[in-house]
Request: fold
Amino acid sequence: MAASGAKLLWSGLGLIAPLNARALGVPPAGVGGVSIDTRSLENGDLFFAITGDRADGHDYVAAAFERGAAAAVVDEAHADALKHLGCLYVVKDVLKAMEGLARAARERTRAGVIAVTGSVGKTSTKEALRCVLGAVGATHASEKSFNNHWGVPLMLARLPEDAAYAVFEIGMNHAGEIAALVDMVRPHVAVVTNVAPVHLEHFENVEAIARAKAEIFGGLVEGGVAILNRDVSTFPLLEEAARESAAAHVLTFGESDGADAQLLDYDPQETSALVLARVLGEELLFTVGGLGKHLAVNSLAVLLAARSVGVDTRKAADALAAFAPPKGRGAREKLRLDPAFAGSEFLLIDESYNANPASMRAAIDLLGSAPVASVGRRIAALGDMLELGPTSPDLHRALAEPLQKNRIDLVFAAGPLCRGLYDALPPAMQGGWAPEALELEPLLSHALCPGDALMVKGSNGSKMHALVAALKQRFAAPAQNPEA
Ligand SMILES: Nc1ncnc2c1ncn2[C@@H]1O[C@H](COP(=O)(O)OP(=O)(O)O)[C@@H](O)[C@H]1O
Ligand SMILES: [Mg+2]
Reply:
């Protein structure tokens, strides 16, 4: 990152105060980036030796310097043993030091800052904002789903001084987590994509989840904008919290009447969708470069957020055509059952990144409207949804209803929780069940026919992405078909 001539992210001496560190060795002129993982560390980066669940970053300081780290942040206990390796910033607590740098980044930026939370759709919405804002100015946005106690400060610490816009994804498993994270981000605009029964293991009910999401409004700067989903059952609770915050404006989006950005019509095409919406009184027709009504609704939050940081709504809407759903969140690809025969294609819809009842339903709707050949069938391969608490078996079984309503022809299921759903289906819909995701591969390979559409989804921990990878390996894409 700090290749010659590249702009430095932080000066070496300037790091000492925000890190609250003492330097051991000669500080570099500057660092080009910030890293907590030696596998992705780039030459010239500052390495933070964070202690995680599985590993202690101090064991990787030598590897960091081998890969070209400019300096490392370590705690007192490890300083002596590591000082021969290179310049160290020695601190009491490495994570706290990274938070200090995060706060310094927020302090110095002149960017319009947007924070995104919600039960589902955080990453999709964040990536759509990256696409829209990136079309009009220098935009920094969180990587992947780096939205937790280390992800948020890491993404802030990487905020370049000259960014015009900054977008941060904020997640949570417990009450109080968002409050701590948004206190570092201090957004001008806070978005709650939606509230759904996710992480119910740690919450009594959906209202408790909504209250935890609403913590995001507590971090808004004076005069900021709160953007909320008007369609969710907990909307009144969210609205009240937003009105009690420092927000000067509360804006709403959704399909409901009265939403400031309201979805009027949704028309799916082959790989994109036409959306008609009324946004702050203005009717807009635009293309969203991804399928699913949920993405269209997310895009309304995107338009309101972009508008709130000064971007023209029409311009923002036009930019949404170039949006592409992130990997595992609706990417589509045609694969050939017979590599030599163009007529043997089936459609693979990769929703394998994660799943909860809300996103499962959205994905099942998506499959229900997927194009299939006249002989083709709609096939779902579903893995367990994890962390749903005591009602988990019911939440799985309840998916039988949207599967039937959407006329899904065949369901393949993996995992103990999906067993209950599988057994609740009419026999004609039962394609096969297996304990593990990968064991569905031979069953699917046998069942798939030309013209079928297959949608794969499950919680990250259910490893349905491994099934997608196995199918892609077995059935190669035709040469002219670029990777989605
Ligand atoms: N508003 C929404 N409602 C339901 N499902 C959604 C919504 N937005 C995105 N999804 C789907 O949910 C899954 C997770 O999306 P993602 O954007 O990664 O959410 P998060 O970052 O909150 O985990 C994907 O399959 C995606 O297509
Ligand atoms: Mg995410």
Summary: The chain has three domains: 10-94, 109-322, 331-474.
